[in-house]
Amino acid sequence: MTTFRIKRYNPEKQPEPYYEDFQLDIPDGSTLLDCINLIKWKQDGSLTYRMSCRSAICGSCGMKVNGRAILACQRQAVSQVDKDDTVTIEPLGNMQPIKDLVVDFEPFWEKVHKVKPYLQTNEQPPEKERQQAPEQFRLIDDSSTCIMCGNCYSDCNVLEVDDNFLGPAALAKAQRFVSDSRDEKTLERVTELSEPGGIWDCTHCGECVERCPKPAEPFYRIKEIMTVALEQGVHNNNGARHALSFANSVKASGRLNENRIPVESVGIFNIKGLMDLIPIGIRMLLKRKIPPIFHKSIDDVKDVKRIFKELGQ
Ligand code: SF4
Ligand code: SF4
Ligand code: FES
Q1: Is residue 36 within 6 Å of ligand 3 at its C-beta?
Q2: Shortest CA distance to 257 belongs to which of 239, 244, 269?
Q3: Sign of the alpha-carbon torsion through 264, 267, 273, 274
Q4: Rounded to an integer, what distance in angstroms lies between the CA atom of residue 5 and that of residue 23?
Q5: Separation of CA 143 and ligand 2 centre (Å)
């Protein structure tokens, strides 16, 4: 028998969530969703969750299993059993639970709508379709596979502390249009996406790539938008300045100049930003964390410069 420890929540009956254990013999070949269905159909009909396609297509059955967001219909149940013969199932994170495993997707959809997830052009539509070459489509192929399951949103570390962050799914959707050869608002898009709450607030943790059940893999899409933003000259923000300072430092000396990067990231004429750095500098000084004043290049810096040259940088 395997224990399915499921987080229950029904605000009409009890204000606090709680865990309830169900015992089940996992039938051969059953997915986790099959097991949850058996629990609902045979043990407790009040258990509430979303599901539809049972084929990893509709994106409905996202839930946290043993602490990580997955699609319940995409995994064999036996693969999720821990060493105590238990599977712990909770609602997706970073969204408010409504009942049991059902969460409120409203903030998720608001953020998707914010990135204007539709083609924007300056001209009237042609009589027939707008054409796109296969190599142009390949640039947006991966982001087009997103099924809006919310797994990436659930486990994004930034969203845990910053509601303002657009989040991985909305940014993957944004890349779908930033890199679309038919869209004519690329500059406007990357300018908006470079504002606070956008691409540069991602911490590059990569969790959304691990959690994504499709090739959409949002962090890689975020990096693609960053590249387009830099190519389009959208540099007037801390994130872009930080990326450029980072690259320039490595190019010049083979290592990071940790005294320059914070200053160049806030902007050397940004008096308020520079003043804000002073308390951090003092704390670093007191903890003896100040990098060496005189920055030294690595011995083989010429090899680093050669790599940059070969990359055309
Ligand atoms: S890589 Fe960025 S978007 Fe993805 S989970 Fe981490 S912080 Fe969130
Ligand atoms: S990017 Fe991946 S994990 Fe995020 S909503 Fe789309 S399919 Fe789900
Ligand atoms: S039920 Fe559709 S993705 Fe799982």
Answers
A1: no
A2: 244
A3: positive
A4: 9
A5: 9
